Amino acid sequence: MPDALSIVVVETDRERAFMIVDGLRDAGEFDIQVISEPSGLARQIQMRDPDVVLIDIANPSRDVLEELTLASGPKDRPVAIFADRSEDGLSAAAVEAGVSAYVVDGLQPARLKPVLDAAIARFRLFQRMRTELAEAKRALEERKVIDRAKGMVMKARGIGEDEAYALLRKAAMDQNKRVAEVAQALVTAAGLLA
């Protein structure tokens, strides 16, 4: 993220919005924009494309929370929600929805920067975890395809597993491709011929 973070503050109360903006300005160098009308929130946030979204809401319900989190794009950027009150289970629901920080009865100007720092750190952690999970799933799928292709080569040539893999690897090197790509081509071709 750039040095001067762009922050969108979603706050319908003008006085609270001024308090938040002043608190953020005291805490550092930020590009701050305020959204005072939450209708069309997703479009408004998308147009501004901020680094962080900070939402202040008096008493969120599950529906409002879900709408706000979907609109603010918690998978695209850190989202911090400050709520005056909260029903049982809403903080867990917020975290499951991807909110990086959910603070109840805690909108105090001096706490804004530490909460935003924690939200950004948590967002980055989850972003890394999502990337690692996607890579692990991709590797597992590739492994399945390679094993299937090895089985086909073993059966067709009457050879062992190591020899079949060596053939796939050689074909991949000869074609300047990955073993998984050659294996997928073999599996696809066999499916067409069956």
Structure description:
The chain contains seven helices and five strands. With about 190 residues, it is α/β, with parallel strands linked by helices. A five-stranded parallel sheet has the order 2-1-3-4-5, with helices on both faces. The relative contact order is 0.10.
Short description:
The chain has two domains: 5-107, 3-Layer(aba) Sandwich (Rossmann fold); 133-193, Winged helix-like DNA-binding domain superfamily/Winged helix DNA-binding domain (Arc Repressor Mutant, subunit A), CATH 1.10.10.10. It has seven helices and five strands, in the order βαβαβαβαβααα.
Q: Total number of β-strand segments?
A: 5
How large is the radius of gyration? 25 Å
Helix/strand structural class? alpha/beta
Percent helix range? 55-70%
Number of domains: 2
How can the largest sheet be summarized? 5 strands, parallel
Taking pLDDT < 50 over at least 5 consecutive residues as the criterion, the unreliable ranges are none
Second rung of CATH, namely the architecture of the largest domain? 3-Layer(aba) Sandwich
The averaged pLDDT comes out at 87
CATH superfamily of the largest domain: Response regulator
In N-to-C order, the SSE pattern is: EHEHEHEHEHHH
Distance between the termini: 51 Å
What is the CATH T-level topology of the largest domain?
Answer: Rossmann fold
The proportion of strand residues reads 5-15%
Question: How many helices in DSSP terms?
Answer: 7
Strand line-up across the major sheet: 2-1-3-4-5
* Coarse morphology: elongated
